[in-house]
Fold this sequence. Notes:
Blueprint: H1 2-22, E1 34-41, H2 51-66, E2 76-83, H3 89-101, E3 106-108, H4 113-126, E4 130-132, E5 149-151, H5 156-170, E6 174-180, H6 187-200, E7 207-213, H7 222-232, E8 236-240, H8 243-255, E9 264-267
Parallel strand pairs: 1-2, 1-3, 3-4, 4-5, 6-7, 6-8, 8-9
Amino acid sequence: LQAAKTMLTMVMLLMVPTSLCAHNHERDHGDSRLVRVLVLLPADRARLFSQARVRPAIEYARESVTGNATLLPGHRFSIHFADSGCGNEALFSAVDFYTEHGAPHLILGPACEYAAAPVARLAVHWGVPMVSAGALASGFSSKDEYQTLTRVAPAYAQLGALFLAMFRRFSWSGASLIYNDDMKERDCFFTVEGIHQTFAKQHRGFELQPFSFDSEHQDLDFGEMLEGVVLSGHAVVIICAGADSVREILLEAHRKGMTGGDHVFFNIELFNSTQYGEGAAR
């Protein structure tokens, strides 16, 4: 939490002055020293990046800046929290804020991919900085499209770099990717995409075989899926799914004799995903 507080303080110091200069021509309701900060985060407390969890760090950052006479002297911060959900709610909240207050000087969040993408494009149109601890999909690395976006967490491509280093270390040539694609937030899809794109950029040929499933709308047959893994000849299996699905996959792998040392299983824990509850395995 202390690291998050310090980081947010630095964000306000480094990004707000530039944004203020860029928007000094806009309506400020008579106060040119008022800094408008729009925080777009889920109201759902179950999410790691919920408003309730992040608000203390943001308030600490504001107090740190306003309490120091040498940091942005004379400026006041108006911080507005709005529910981003994990979809279009974030864009609607941003537009509503603009209608009432004008463009913000700084946007914090959203974290979910489908919420962050339209807001990040809007931030470019407004010319304001946007800082997110999410937006980890590979597409957000494009500075042509997301010019004002700063991500403060490792992108999924960095996870791909980790696996790439392990593949080189142990001379692995390929892997099977088993992941849940719920067609909603698609956390696992974007995670696997980051791994796949990292490997695809390498000159040495690595073969990655994807196996996707939908845990909600599909009769699952993990046995048939694992038979495909065996036929692929890959000793490495990378799994991204909910806790119960991971348990069922590993139990089925054990029944098929795949846990005797011939295969290596990696389970990707998505720290910001709704996929993980307690789970039967816990």
